[in-house]
Design brief:
Elements: E1 11-14, H1 19-29, E2 35-41, E3 44-51, H2 57-60, H3 63-78, E4 85-87, E5 92-95, E6 98-108, E7 118-126, H4 153-174, H5 177-186, E8 193-196, E9 199-206, E10 212-216, E11 219-223
Parallel strand pairs: 1-2
Antiparallel strand pairs: 2-3, 3-7, 4-5, 5-6, 6-7, 8-9, 9-10, 10-11
Helix pairs in contact: 3-4, 3-5
Domain BPL/LPL catalytic: 6-183
Keywords: Ligase
GO molecular function, one term: ligase activity
């Protein structure tokens, strides 16, 4: 298998096991930011990026939508133009309407107002369906079942990191306005009734920190991105 090549300031390491868990463990030990752990199986692409934010956690968690938009841009550059990618607020990735994978996030410490020592965003993408009986799980899909069989997993991983870097640079240079516009156009379920983290309501949009705005009756509930932080694997 061809080893992925990453842009400057990023380096890669093949993972034996879950890249997200490995990235969190190595980040806690003090590894350099920009380290990308990956596991490329025939039917599944898993990867995780280590970040070292220099801002409070409630701001730094914009890295999650940056990585989501980065994935959409990467697949958009490599896949057929008719393939549609949408992003769930809580991490799911949808391809042509079916759930195809997810993003996840962890950081330490979890204090929203403190600058985290590290932050990790993980990607988990199904390349081939787990079962040939696709009708058993009509809401789930896999990348190569959606007209993307020519997309090379190594190239997609490389492109995800590149496009994520572009998004990080745009955030650093000019703030989050462009990210809000791009992510808002990809938001799965916006304007509909959804159930997230056990909270049901009407998905109105997000606040300036990408917190979910959920209308519940006559009130609007704000669910911050910090609610998505996973405990250390």
């Amino acid at each position: 298998m061809t080893q992925p090549q990453f842009p400057p300031l990023f380096s890669g390491e093949a993972a034996k096991g879950d890249p997200f868990a490995l990235a969190c463990g190595r980040a806690a030990e003090g590894c350099d930011a920009g380290l990308v752990f990956y596991d490329l199986a025939p039917d599944r692409l898993r990867a995780a990026i280590v970040f070292a934010p220099e801002t409070a956690l409630h701001d730094a968690l914009a890295a999650l939508p940056v990585c989501g938009v980065g994935f959409q841009n990467a697949l958009g550059a490599l896949g057929p133009p008719e393939v549609a990618v949408h992003l769930g607020w809580d991490g799911p990735i949808y391809v042509n309407g079916g759930r195809c994978g997810a993003l996840r996030v962890a950081a330490s410490p979890k204090d929203p107002m403190a600058e985290p020592d590290w932050l990790v965003v993980g990607l988990d993408l199904w390349l081939w369906p787990a079962s040939e009986e696709g009708g058993l799980t009509p809401d789930q899909t896999a990348l190569y079942a959606e007209g993307c069989a020519e997309v090379d997993a190594v190239e997609l991983l490389e492109a995800w990191v590149r496009h994520t870097l572009v998004g990080l640079n745009a955030w650093s240079d000019s703030g989050l306005a462009s990210l809000h516009r791009e992510w808002g156009g990809l938001a799965h379920g916006k304007g509909t009734d959804i159930d997230v983290l056990g909270h049901a309501g009407h998905f109105l949009g997000v606040d300036e920190h990408f917190g979910l705005l959920l209308r519940q009756g006559d009130t609007t509930r704000l669910i911050p991105l910090t609610e998505l932080l996973e405990d250390l694997p």
